Amino acid sequence: MDKLLIRGGQRLSGTVEIRGAKNAALPAFAASLLSDKPLTLRNLPDVVDVKTMQTLLEGYGVAFTERGTDALMLDAAQAGPREASYDTVRKMRATILVLGPLVARFGEARVSLPGGCAIGARPVDLHIKALEALGAEIDVAGGYIEAKAPRGLSGARIVFPFSSVGATETALLAASRAKGETEIVNAAKEPEVLDLARCLSAMGVRIEGIGSHRLLVQGAQNLSPATHEIVADRIEAGTYAVAAAITGGELELVGARLEHLAAVGEALEAAGVRLWPSDRGLMVTRPGRLTGIDIMTQAYPGFSTDLQAQFMALMSVADGTSLIRETVFENRFMHVPELVRLGADITLKGTSATVRGVASLKAAPVMATDLRASVSLVLAGLVAEGETVVSRIYHLDRGYEALDRKLKRCGADIERIPA
Ligand SMILES: CC(=O)N[C@H]1[C@@H](OP(=O)(O)OP(=O)(O)OC[C@H]2O[C@@H](n3ccc(=O)[nH]c3=O)[C@H](O)[C@@H]2O)O[C@H](CO)[C@@H](O)[C@@H]1O
Ligand SMILES: C=C(OP(=O)(O)O)C(=O)O
């Protein structure tokens, strides 16, 4: 397994290209299954999760054709509801997203319960309830979800008890090919959900309320060929914003959108980081000292749970104390013991972490445990004194394109050590 070796202490400056969001690319891939017409996706990130999704869809008979360096044409004309290999499905959460399109188009689907980052129990009850509301019969047994709707799905009112990104995506995907109108109440409004809605609109589905908590979807049986450009990855952007901040540097994040950082942008500003839109994206600099501030993760536009670990690394070297509350996933503090190994002063109590800023971090061997936890260790390594080795970085490769190369180009002393 590859490792990363980081010699801390370099101030970052330069330009980073922010790519399409993996968490928007994955549902867009699933959308291709709805149609027998090709779907071309642009601005795809070159990350392992996207490749895993490609392998999964190839298993269902979707044909892929390259269209330049970062675009693919997906053609599901010959697709069918075959069984996906457990080995592919267990690798990530988003594999559940094929269930809705398969049952909507073919009247049946059998998908293994999904894997993904070990950050909590992560039930799929809301996905199942959404499909049941549209008329699917669902059976969960032996680690598989089986869905049947021999006469197709029918539009319905789906009321979510709370906002779920994945369940909203399942509802949107399935409703797009259901007969009649579907109302989705308490829909998630993360930029990746909006991006899926835009992709489905380009395919010919009429969706009202995009960007709100209430979506109205007019199902369509005949979809059109479409092209869709994946929205820039706000989590990749936020991660590099923290990289600039923690090293006291200045980065231009090309393609990034300040408004998509939402509460994360506000928290960074409050901590002493300056962010402003540039012609090409977003500028980030940290002119003075960092101040510890309190945050609480929440659904968008609240503070993203996918940036909690990175922000904790930043708070580890800020002046004063920061209280970090995780409210989205119950077990998303796996980075804490590793940050402590690097000299951070963090106390965990239930779903809250108290971070007392220290004057400096010290290098140590650390272990990546999940995608965002891993990158928080790299960020801490950028300022730790000495050589930090981060092992098990396959987690990082799931969601960050060329992280080491992008950081190196901006002045970081970082090397990938192949296994
Ligand atoms: C591939 C992808 O896009 N992953 C993102 C997606 O995950 P994911 O779609 O899994 O996250 P959700 O928004 O669904 O999860 C929110 C909360 O709802 C709970 N829940 C969810 C579904 C369900 O059927 N029942 C249920 O109880 C979850 O356990 C969690 O506590 O959104 C999360 C929240 O922004 C991000 O951290 C993940 O990076
Ligand atoms: C948690 C993540 O991914 P997944 O939902 O696939 O585990 C993530 O992207 O941070």
TrEMBL record:
The EC number(s) this enzyme carries: 2.5.1.7
Keyword Plastid assigned: no
Catalytic activity: phosphoenolpyruvate + UDP-N-acetyl-alpha-D-glucosamine = UDP-N-acetyl-3-O-(1-carboxyvinyl)-alpha-D-glucosamine + phosphate
Gene3D superfamilies per record: Enolpyruvate transferase domain (3.65.10.10)
Chain positions recorded as phosphoenolpyruvate binding sites: 22-23
Keyword Transferase found: yes
Compartments in which it is found: Cytoplasm
Pfam families: EPSP_synthase
UniProt-annotated binding residues for UDP-N-acetyl-alpha-D-glucosamine: 93, 122-126, 306, 328
Enolpyruvate transferase domain mapped to chain residues: 7-407
Alphabetical list of SUPFAM superfamilies matching this protein: EPT/RTPC-like (SSF55205)
Keywords: Cell cycle, Cell division, Cell shape, Cell wall biogenesis/degradation, Cytoplasm, Peptidoglycan synthesis, Pyruvate, Transferase
Residues bearing the modification 2-(S-cysteinyl)pyruvic acid O-phosphothioketal: 117
Function: Cell wall formation. Adds enolpyruvyl to UDP-N-acetylglucosamine.
Protein name listed in UniProt: UDP-N-acetylglucosamine 1-carboxyvinyltransferase
Protein species of origin: Bosea thiooxidans
Species classification: Bacteria, Pseudomonadati, Pseudomonadota, Alphaproteobacteria, Hyphomicrobiales
